[in-house]
Amino acid sequence: MAYIKEKLSDIEKEFIPDYINMKNPLLDIFPELPLCIEVIQNCVTFYSIEGFEEEIEKREILAREYNPKNSSHSFKLDYDKLSQVLNYGVFKDELFEIIEAQEAEFKADLDKLLSSSTSDISFKINLRECIQMLNQSMGSLGSITVNRVQKVAVDLYRKSYVRVLKELKVKYQEFAPELFIAQDSTDKEDFKRYFENPSAVQKLIVFEKKLQDKGYLNEDLVWQKDKIDLVKFFLFCVNKEMIKKIFAQKTDVLRFFEERYSIELGDQKKPSKFKKLKNYRAEFYFLQ
Q1: pLDDT score, position 60
Q2: Considering only CA atoms, which of 144, 160, 159 is closest in space to residue 102?
Q3: CA distances from 187 to 13, 139, 166, 219 (A)
Q4: What pairs with residue 44 in β-bridges?
Q5: How many angstroms separate the CA atoms of 30 and 89, rounded?
């Protein structure tokens, strides 16, 4: 499957069985999701479209009656049903493995493409196209409305794109700084949206350097400690009056931190969770 996704239907192909190309929907399996596929398959409804024009109606049929060659036959995943029976942790783990493999293949192909470039100009053109694809996909996926199941997949892909963009920036910014201006501009817009002023942003950058020295962040700004520690860091920033008050009790900044630091916080970013946390100032004594 292609790594670059811009539509929800592209992402759904990673976890909804491709019944159209299956020879037998009862026997064929989707091996990439060995622990979730049966649950997903049990939430798929098959139906036949019957009638003409305004008299059209859908009649539910059995899986064994479904014929992909019959243009009146179709299927649909019942997300309401799936959301109640799906093990989200297992689903996320299996999807992560799929995306991780796609990411590795994408980076390997990019390395081959860049190494075959015959000049600095062609190198930069190829690199620019890659960066544009990643940013465009991130923007497209970030603008669509999703349900809980779809959100797991969308978030995993967007976080993967963030990781790749960070790696490319670390690797090639010195050689082609002009290619990363848009990425830096996106960061600046988020800083402007969530932080009180430029001084607060500069303070965050200083904090990040100290967090790297203490092993909370690695050199690529990937969070190395527990999820709860990042939530405590957010509260520390709030206490330091760095975050705009309208976001102090919301999840927006934590979502920004999730992308910036390549980590999934899950339920830890819920206000009902982080409002109960204390002693976060002692945790980050070295930032005082």
Answers
A1: 87
A2: 160
A3: 31, 13, 12, 17
A4: 77
A5: 18
Query: Which pLDDT tens digit goes with each residue over 22-49?
Result: 555 544 545 578 889 889 989 999 989 8
And the tokens for 254? Answer: 């934590």
The strand ranges marked E within 29-170 are 44-50, 57-61, 73-77
Distance of CA 29 to the CA centre of its chain: 25
The answer on pLDDT for 112 being more than 90 is yes
What 3-state DSSP class applies to 195?
strand
Question: Could you give the CA distance from residue 165 to residue 173 in angstroms, rounded to a whole number?
Answer: 11
Q: CA-CA distance, 149 to 166, in Å (whole number)?
A: 27
In terms of Cα–Cα distance, which of 257, 255, 197 is closest to 221? Answer: 257
Q: Which residues contact 120 (CB under 8 A, 6 or more apart)?
A: none
Asked whether the beta carbons of 126 and 109 are under 8 A apart, the reply is no
- Look at the block and give the residue holding tokens 């002009």: 178
- Token output for 121: 């100009």
277 forms bridges with which residues in the sheet?
none
d(CA 283, CA 232) in angstroms, rounded, equals: 8
- Of 49-53, 126-130, 197-201, the range with the highest mean pLDDT is 126-130
Cβ proximity of 168 and 127 under 8 Å: yes
Burial of 36 (0-12, 13-18, 19+ CB in 10 A): buried
Q: What is the DSSP-derived secondary structure letter of residue 118?
A: S
Q: Would you say the pTM of this structure is higher than 0.70? A: no
Query: With left for phi above 0 and alpha for psi between -120 and 50, is residue 209 left, alpha or beta?
Result: alpha
Describe the crossing of helices 88-115 and 120-142 by its angle, rounded to 10 degrees. 160
